[in-house]
Amino acid sequence: MKKKVIMHRIVISIFFISTVRAFFNNAPADSVINQPAEENVNSKATGVQSSTEKEYYNYLTQLNFEQPKQFWLGTGLLLRKNVKTADALNEYKIQEYRTYLDKYFPNAHSDYIQRFMIETYIDWEKWNEVQANLLKFTYLYQESPLRGPVLENGSVKIQEEEYFAANREKLLPIIQGLPETGEIHENYFQYLITLLSFKDNRLTSIVAREAWEFIRLYTDKPQTSTVLFWMAEIDLVSDNPHSALMIYKKLMTLFPSSNEFATALYKTGTIQQDIFSEFETATATFRQFLEQFPEDDRSSDSQYRIAMIADQNFKDWTTAIDEYETLVTQFPTSDNAATALLRVGEIQADKLKQRDVAIATYNRLATEYTDDTANATEALQRAGKLYEKSKAFEEAINHYMKVHEKYPGTEGALESLEKSAKLYEKKLKRNDQAIEVLNIIVAEFPDTKNSKKAEKKIKKLNK
């Protein structure tokens, strides 16, 4: 039974193909459209190619008017199901239109085929594609005789369909206006910029497709580096870091003088470090960045990342200190400079057991970065703690009290005052000085739990 069904389908297929060929060979394009298409004045097709293009266009014209069919699938009244061909037909139409445009864009009948594509997407109710293709027609076919009717019909759909509610106010003026005219690749680039400007997740896959098409068509144009950068960024936020990395590398390889090169190089390093843990490779990338772009705002961060890799990943304390020191010396105003010195002191104290050197580093931080309240406070407190461990309680108190002197009223000052009072009481047995410090807490931090605790302690010490 199955063999009979298969043979029956083969016979039908052969008959269909023969019929279609005969029909298209004999039927002119204008027999199925109300208005015959005029050949695009920009057509470069000549001779055999022109003849092939016209035949292909005639076929696509017939295809555009082809309506979905339905048929019964299966055998028997109960087992059969009615199948409609609408989706499959529309998908086939779009594929054929794209095939034509891949070969002939922007010449010959490209504007007509673009119109067919828009009409198919409207019938299919794929409104994101309708939006993208209307914009494409707006920017790329500004001289087309079809411009008026295509965009007028598109405007009606934009006003009618709920899908366009969020973008309607922005979209309609673009469709109904007249963009600035430039060379075709410049118009295409503006079309991509406009697509991106909607920041609509429903357009993301279309933006990617159109961007890759631009790259294919205009590999040697300066705008291509920008489009490549967009694609890398899209992949990066879409959790496709490997493809993003390779696109950045492609950009740097093909466009070493582009404006996007520096950012691509920096992003390459961050991906290597943060995502793929390729620390040696990332270090080399950041060193290249420093060499090529020493004045770039991201140079200080590149140096900081080199230091952190040596510190956190390689545990190479000596190298880490050298790299942090390079950051502080070459980029003293960097947001990371004070943090780098704080880490240097920590490595010296905890890893290398160089207490005095660490204290000197902390004091340097507190002196050079007095405006950085948080880090300067932390540095003075760490120095004080190191003195405590060495039983140099007077020096510890001096450092704690510096926090109060430099940053009065802060949480760090309150904490340091409490530490000082405790050392006077417990370690130096100087209750009178402990009371003096506790009175400062009561006076400068009234109505706090710390103040009430200090008052109780004062009463106890006065007994």
Fold and architecture overview:
The chain has 463 residues and is mainly α. The chain has a domain at 395-463: Tetratricopeptide repeat domain (Serine Threonine Protein Phosphatase 5, Tetratricopeptide repeat). It is 72% helix and 2% strand. The chain is built from 22 helices and two strands. The protein has helices spanning 2-26, 47-64, 86-104, 110-124, 127-140, 147-160, 168-176, 184-197, 204-217, 223-237, 241-254, 261-275, 279-292, 299-313, 317-330, 337-351, 355-368, 373-389, 393-406, 411-427, 431-444, 449-462; strands spanning 70-73, 81-84. It has a two-stranded antiparallel sheet. The longest helix has 25 residues, at 2-26. The radius of gyration is 37 Å and the shape is elongated. It starts with a helix and ends with a helix.
What is the element layout, followed by pairings?
Blueprint: H1 2-26, H2 47-64, E1 70-73, E2 81-84, H3 86-104, H4 110-124, H5 127-140, H6 147-160, H7 168-176, H8 184-197, H9 204-217, H10 223-237, H11 241-254, H12 261-275, H13 279-292, H14 299-313, H15 317-330, H16 337-351, H17 355-368, H18 373-389, H19 393-406, H20 411-427, H21 431-444, H22 449-462
Antiparallel strand pairs: 1-2
Helix pairs in contact: 2-3, 2-4, 3-4, 4-5, 5-6, 5-7, 5-8, 6-7, 8-9, 9-10, 10-11, 11-12, 12-13, 13-14, 14-15, 15-16, 16-17, 16-18, 17-18, 18-19, 19-20, 20-21, 21-22
